[in-house]
Design goal:
The protein has about 210 residues and is α/β, with parallel strands linked by helices. The chain is built from 5 helices and 7 strands, in the order αββαβαββαββα. The termini are far apart.
Length: about 210
């Protein structure tokens, strides 16, 4: 009888050999471990999917693939529109003084009348001062206070192609349109309206380097 056989047991219950029988780990514990791992993986995938949905519909960034295959993160159009939209004054909120710096008579009044038809308020109309008289070579110069450079003068500039913008030391909100020697007429109304609409639209954000 082997020393592994408990006392009083024999026959078919006899244990022979010199090694103890190998005990298997209960399968229930293995199933619990596998189930836990599966749950962790599922939660990770669900979290990753949620982040992707937030990224797509949150309106902050989009992924752009370049020709080389690299990925670039760029602001979405909706986010760009929300952050870069410009609040521009209406023509009815802008008072324009029209001055003629050319030898041709009647230009200031004709221009002022057309601007009035397009909704602008008209202030002074007449000849330019000695500082500008017969010294403006282009189509014209638009003058205003420093703060007018941001919105008021760009709105007025849609009416006169090629006009230069310049700030002076004035304190009032009115602006000057000084007609230059290259002036023929204001921009056509349809063209000016299109330029004004484009001015109000936000500019797309530049792509990161390498995109």
């Amino acid at each position: 009888m082997s020393m592994l056989t408990p006392p009083g047991m024999g026959g078919k219950y006899r244990i022979t050999g010199n090694a103890y029988p190998r005990m298997r780990r209960p399968r229930r514990r293995r199933k619990i471990l596998l189930g836990g791992l599966a749950a962790i993986v599922a939660l990770g995938l669900a979290g990753w999917g949620t982040l992707q949905l937030i990224d797509i519909f949150g309106g902050e960034e989009q992924t752009v693939r370049t020709a080389s295959g690299s990925a670039c993160r760029t602001p979405s159009p909706s986010a760009s529109s929300a952050t870069k939209a410009r609040a521009l004054p209406k023509p009815s909120q802008i008072t324009v003084n029209v001055f003629n710096a050319t030898p041709r008579s009647g230009l200031a009044k004709e221009t002022a009348d057309e601007l009035k038809k397009r909704g602008f308020k008209i202030g002074e109309v007449g000849n330019a001062t000695a500082e500008y008289d017969k010294k403006v070579k282009g189509t014209g110069i638009l003058l205003g206070a420093p703060e007018a450079q941001e919105a008021v003068l760009p709105v007025l500039a849609t009416q006169l192609a090629g006009a230069g913008l310049k700030a002076d030391a004035r304190k009032g909100k009115d602006v000057d349109l000084i007609i230059g020697s290259a002036f023929t007429s204001l921009a056509k109304k349809a063209v000016a309206d299109k330029a004004l609409a484009a001015l109000a639209e936000p500019s797309p954000a530049p792509l990161p380097s390498g995109c």
